[in-house]
Amino acid sequence: MCGIIGYIGNNNASPILLQSLKRMEYRGYDSAGIATINDNELIVRKDIGRIDQINEKIKFDAVKGKIGIAHTRWATHGTVTIENSHPHVSCNEEIALVHNGIIDNYMQLREELSTKHNFKSETDTEIIAHLIEEEYAKRKEPIETLKYVSDKLTGSFALVVIFKDHVNEIYGVRKYAPLIIGKGKKENFIASDIVSFIDYTDNVIFLEDKEIAKVTINSVKIINFDGKEIRRGVTHVAWEAADVSKEEFSHHTIKEIHEQNSTVNMALKQDKVGFNNFIKELTSGKNIFITGSGSSYHIALIFRNMLTRFAKISAQAFLSSEAEEYSELMDDNSILIPISQSGETADLLEAIRKVKNKGVKILSIYNTVGSSLSRMSDLSMNLNCGPEIGVAATKSFTAQLAIVYKIIFNLCQMENGDKKLEGLSSNIKEVLDIKKSLHQIIEVLNESNDVYFLGRSIHHPIALEGALKLKELAYIHAEGMAAGELKHGTLALVEEGTPAIIINPMDETYRDTISNAIEMKSRGAKIIGISSTNNEVYDYWIKIPEVDNSIYPIIEIIPLQLLAYFTAIRRKNNPDYPRNLAKSVTVK
Ligand code: G6P
Description:
The protein is α/β, with parallel strands linked by helices. Helix 14 runs antiparallel to helix 15 (417-432). The structure holds 6-O-phosphono-alpha-D-glucopyranose.
C-alpha cells in the first residue's frame, strides 16, 4: 500500500520525484524517501512523516542526479522508522530499490542471508536488496539477476531498482502488484500509479504480472520471467493533470463530494455494446456472485438487494476478504462481479484468481484505467469518475451506484428509467446544499464517542457506509446496522444523548424504521432523521428531496459524507489522509 516511482531523463530527478510523491501520498503517508545516482555516488534521503514535512527537513528536491527512485510508505512489515523507510540499499551501497507489496518468505530468506549481509531494518523489502546484491555479484547482469530473485520471492511485489554501475537504466519488476511505465519525451517513468507522473506524461505502457522492464531515457524493453521479450504498445490515458488538483477546495475529499453531481453522469455513459453484453451475461441464468471491500462491498450489497427485489434475479454478495467459502461454490456456470475503485485491492484480486481458471466469467466494475482488475476481466464497466484522491470513497461510491441503477433499470425495463437516471445529477446538486444546515448536528457528533446508523432493506448498506465514513474521517466509533436488529442487542448500549442517525425516506421501510427510532429515543438517544418528511421523533431533521424510491440510496449517502467530512474538519483531522489508512489496500 505504498507508492513507488522511478525517473530517468534529461532533468534533475529529485524535484520530479518529489512532485510524484505528493501525487501518490494518498497511497501511504507514514514516511518517504528517494535515491538518486550522481557522479558515481548513490544518494539516499529518507525520513518519517508527511512528504512536505520531510522535504522541509531534508530537502529532497535539492538532491542531484538524473536517475532516481522514490517511495511513500504505509507501514506493514516493521514500524514507522527511518530505517524501515524505503529506498533500501545493498550492503555495498551499489543497488537501491523501492517496493510495494509483501514478501511472504522474507523470514526464511533473511535467515539465509544474515550470515553475509548486514540488515538495518525490520522490513521484508530489505531482503530483496541483499538478495539482488548476492546474485548480481554472480550474474553481473540486471535482468538475469532480477529474474532469479523474483523466482526466489513469494508474495506480491512491484519493484523499481537502480544499479550504480548502470546509471542509464532503471528496472521494474511486477508480480501481483501494479507497475506502469510512463513514456515521456526524453524522459521515462515507472510507477505504481499513473497519477504519480500525470503532470509529465499521459502515455503509458502497462506491465503484466511476471514481467521485468528495462527503461532508459528513450527506450523500454519488457521481458517476462521466462525470458521472452514482450512487445506492448503505448496507451493514451485521458486523465488530465487538472483532475488531480484540489481546485478551489481545501481538500480532495470535499472536492470529490461536490463533483458527484457530474460524476454520476459520467458513470452512466457506458459503451452501448459493452453494456448490452454485460446485461446479456447477467440474464444468462448463471449463478451470480458480487464482491468488493470497504465501500465497494456496500455497493455489492445494494446491487444484490436490487437484483433480487426489482429484477427477481438471485445473487450472493460477499466480502472479498471472505472469498474462501464462496469460491468453493463457483464453477463455469457462475459469474463473478468484482467491484472496486482502485482495481488493485489485494483481497479482491485474490478472490478472482481463486476462481478464474474454473471458467468463472469476470464482469467487473472499476475506476482505475489499466488496473489489474481491468485486465483480469472478461467484461467490464468503468466508473469514468476520474482519479479519486481522498482516501475515503465518495464519488466512486455514487458512480458505482449509478452503474448499478443503470443495470437494474435496464433489466426491469423500468418505466421512465432513463428520465430517472438523467435526473440523478440535479437530485444530487440539491442535496449537496444541505451542508449549510449541518452545524448543530456536527457539534453533537463531535461530542460523541459512539454513533449508530440505522436503515432497513436497501438503506441498510447506506447505514453501513455512513458509519464507515464517520469512522474513517472523524475517528468516531460508529455502527451501521439493520434497524430491525436494534432490539437484539445494540439497544443495551443506548444512553442519554447517544446519537442515532435514522435513514428514513418515505418508502415501504418508513413506518418500521420510525418505530425503531422511537425505541431508541425512549432510551435517551438523540435522533437525527434523514427523510423528505419531518417527524416529531427527530431531534434533528436532515431534509432530503422526495425522489423515486429506488433513487433514495444515492441521495441519502451525500449528507452522511458531508457529516463525516465536516466533523473531521471540526476535529482538526485531515480528511484526505486519515490516520492508519491507505486508499489502495494492495496487501492482504
Ligand atoms: C480502502 C479504502 C476504501 C475502499 C476500500 C476498497 O479501504 O480506504 O475507501 O472502499 O479500500 O477499495 P477499492 O479500491 O477496491 O474500491
